[in-house]
Amino acid sequence: MLPGVFKATKKDGTVYYRSSFTYQNKHISLGSFPTEWTAHTAYAEASNIMSSSCSIQDYSDVFTISFEKYVILVNFRDNEMYFKTPIYLKQKYFYYYFSKKDYLIFDTDDLFYYSSHKIMRRQGHLFVADYGMQVNILSRYGIKNYAVPGKDYIFINGNTSDYRYGNITIINKYHGVSMETKDGKEQFKTKIHIHGDFLVGIYPSETEAAIAYNKAIDVLKKKGFKKEFANNYIEGLSPRKYAEIYSELKIAKKIREFEIQ
After folding, report:
1. What are the residue boundaries of the structural domains of the chain, listed by start?
2. Mean pLDDT of 14-42
3. Three-state SS across the chain?
């Protein structure tokens, strides 16, 4: 066998070749390949990466090694930390790469999480597999799955790839609640989706708007409406204070008199 190559056999008897090498006493798998030569080429590329000063941007399609593995090796060489995901570590943040020009930026507080959770894309959403479930990465910021960027949360510096905590501001954190400005003053509109969006009311505070949404749910349930709604949970509010606000809130007549058809 050529250096760095190991012959293997699939269950159906098909022969393939695995490639690996050792760097700083770390044994690193480079992947599986259809021929002995391509497996050896991956080994040679990895050896060259670790002994050169190539950067992430030097990767090209002529490489046998995958882009993901390339990033992993370059980071290990430069930062002496090995991760199983395509992370490149900086002093106070890190890049998570999908391609040379496609990456996300995270705080180092998230390093342990994303070094053990691979990020996937689905219909523009970003997920990780966690305990057998697909979890939207926005949930780590307290952002709901249905939230709309620019409306429910914003990236302060305008870079929608920058997921550092200080760069994300949540505008609307409750179900059915959106903030708007009228005559230079903030107000909070509450809507609930029945057969289309129904206006519950407009309120002076976000807390009142969130509780109004819960009250609208209760009214609909009493009328026999079967749809499952997610209630808003308001932190730092005592049960007594919640009950006071709840009892005083007015909700739209259209909701109070809604009839199931």
Report:
1. 1-66, 83-173, 177-256
2. 95
3. CCCCEEEEECCCCCEEEEEEEEECCEEEEEEEECCHHHHHHHHHHHHHHHHCCCCHHHCCCCCCCCHHHHHHHHHHHHHCCCCCCCEEECCCEEEEEEECCEEEEEEHHHHHHHHHCCEEEECCEEEEEECCEEEEHHHHHCCCCCCCECCCEEECCCCCCECCHHHEEECCCCCCEEEEEECCEEEEEEEEECCCEEEEEEECCHHHHHHHHHHHHHHHHHCCCCCCCCCCCCCCCCHHHHHHHHHHCCCCHHHHCCCCC
User: Mean pLDDT throughout 49-58?
Assistant: 96
Residue matched to tokens 């370059």? 74
b/e burial code for range 161-177 (CB count within 10 A of at least 16 → b) = ebbbeebbeebbbbbbb
The predicted-structure confidence for 44-53, as pLDDT tens digits, reads as follows: 999 999 999 9
**If we measure between CA atoms, which residue out of 106, 96, 255, 123 comes closest to residue 168?**
106
Give the tokens for residue 133: 């479930």
**Cβ–Cβ under 8 Å, residues 172 and 151:** yes
What does the alpha-carbon distance between residue 199 and residue 168 come to, in Å, rounded to a whole number?
A: 28
Q: Per-residue pLDDT tens for 173-182?
A: 898 998 888 8
Q: What does the alpha-carbon distance between residue 191 and residue 195 come to, in Å, rounded to a whole number?
A: 12
Q: What is the pTM of this model?
A: 0.79
Query: Which own/partner pairs from 59-65 qualify as long-range (CB within 8 Å, at least 24 positions apart)?
Result: 59/100, 64/33, 64/38, 65/30, 65/31
Rounded to whole angstroms, the Cα distance separating 227 from 176 reads: 15
Among 56-65, 104-113, 175-184, 204-213, the minimum mean pLDDT is found in: 175-184
